[in-house]
């Protein structure tokens, strides 16, 4: 059995690393803001970036030349080492922190742009802060700062590798200019204006990164005045999620948002080793989840820049913890600071690298990818080399390249969790086999299928909390091919009830009541069976079923009916509650209300002009309807359209006097022209069912146009009125029917 190792493939020529370099074009890349989006050459651009500060082991860039600027041809061996690694990871942007404004960076920028083939764009930082620029308030100091910034812009403004200009880093922090925010943001806006003026209409966006302290309020206060600043940058370290950042930001600014720093370090301070060496690769796991949130909020956020490309052995000097500071940049110390945002409760300053830095003597340090490298490679490039960690709800597309190869994936779970794992072959002749091992190394579940196709561990109960290992291979160790692997947490049985509304019925004393029933569908939307129960309290309700079992995905109907006990109810409004219970675990428990209105047969039902009411099968005693006619009504029409065989009488009274009546087996229309204002009572007696309507005008037929109407039964009728203009000598009426 051979377990695949992580591999990084780079082109070699004569044993020497070969870097493709083409001469840069003579014109700048067009980078512009369009609403909340960043466009590169007219297309929306998502920043997939890293903070790139490749300071060699043993160097403190704050005290030793070139002071962090390893982007000149004198240091080409460093970026010649890194640019291919960055491209293969899927990086399209690097954020540069140390940049000598007077140095020549053309060689570095040319190689980053690579002639437009898989270009890596550059966010260049103009470094400012005390003590370099202590005064930001006086006119002379501000002129000096703006002049220096404009000179930096002028030096490389036409290079196609430039993506943005970044002003400082966390300048709003208390240790920077946090006590002078009004002066600071006015200055930043003026600096952005200087850059725009220097570049003309095809200027690059200007951004400034803020520390995550009173962040949203700060942006809210200053956003409207920052008319030249093109985008807000934020450095956010909140743990495994950005929380409410995107919603809060969207409410206060319409500028693009870029996360200019995020992530966690690679070192487990509690166990004195890297996370991935002793258990779960939390650095990769956190970045995976954070990037997914960035992707999900592309309408607000234009991408992110991960902290950082490589370990920075010089940063231990900033810690004041026990045994710190570490002032030796040749020693990889654990110094840092406490934080609840990291799984071990501590941030180790010198261990943030996507790349593990290894001392290589006088030659450039060796860059060794950590697991986060492959996670980002999968997220940013979607290549077949899958990360070793698989997340619940995630489908990975991977490859078994050689016979006998076995791919491994790990995930963390709790005791008694139930998981579902599916493997499907997408190409080749694989006979899929999957085996799941527990934290103790013992096999928990397995599945295989022969020959070819797919296999699934449908419902596997996990015995303990910890890290589980999933092994995937060809059952005979002879075939190769592509496959997908999917992991999800099996959910307990969940009861779903539809529709969501309650049951409302009404009728006269002694019945009948309409509607007489309502049907609900209960469904198990989980992965495990559930026992259910349906109950109510009132004896005038009948349930078609009261208990049972639903397997995963199964459903059935429950009919709630008004029974004959309702016929003995006095006039009034009656209520009941139908309770749907998931007896197994309570998930999805819910209720539906029932409201029954029993009407007094001697009390008229309001039937305003323009409305209708139902009439029921046995009209004994008669139904009474009241219609109020206001002043100025020229016609009062009252008609019945039946949907069952019916014989009946319509009688219309005003002030106790019969005004008009009609007795018929067919649909009936009664017309009272120029009715006096007041209350009219209509009495409907007989048998049958249908609809009664009160109108001040019949539906109108328009000459030359079709009108759609309904006749409810054989020998039924529909009435319309038609206005014929003077002088019309001929009138033709055409009728087309469907189902008559």
- Ends apart, CA distance between termini: 76 Å
Mean pLDDT value:
89
Number of domains: 4
The named CATH superfamily of the largest domain: Glycosidases
Q: Which sheet architecture does the biggest sheet show?
A: 8 strands, parallel, barrel
Task: Using the 3D structure, state the CATH architecture of the largest domain.
Answer: Alpha-Beta Barrel
Number of E-state strands: 49
| Fraction in helix | 10-25%
Structure classification = mainly beta
Beta strand %: 35-45%
Number of helices: 9
What is the alpha-carbon Rg in Å?
39 Å
CATH topology of the largest domain: TIM Barrel
Biggest sheet, spatial arrangement of strands:
7-8-9-10-11-12-13-16
Describe the protein's topology:
Elements: E1 2-3, E2 12-13, E3 16-17, E4 31-34, E5 37-40, E6 43-44, E7 47-52, H1 76-89, E8 93-96, H2 106-113, E9 121-126, H3 139-156, E10 162-167, H4 181-199, E11 206-211, H5 215-222, E12 231-235, H6 245-252, E13 257-261, E14 267-268, E15 273-274, H7 275-278, H8 282-296, E16 301-306, E17 336-338, E18 346-348, E19 355-358, E20 366-369, H9 371-381, E21 394-400, E22 405-413, E23 418-428, E24 432-437, E25 443-448, E26 454-461, E27 466-474, E28 481-489, E29 495-498, E30 503-508, E31 513-514, E32 517-524, E33 530-535, E34 541-543, E35 547-550, E36 555-562, E37 572-582, E38 590-599, E39 605-606, E40 611-615, E41 618-629, E42 635-642, E43 647-654, E44 657-664, E45 668-673, E46 678-687, E47 690-695, E48 700-701, E49 721-722
Helix pairs in contact: 1-2, 3-4, 5-6, 8-9
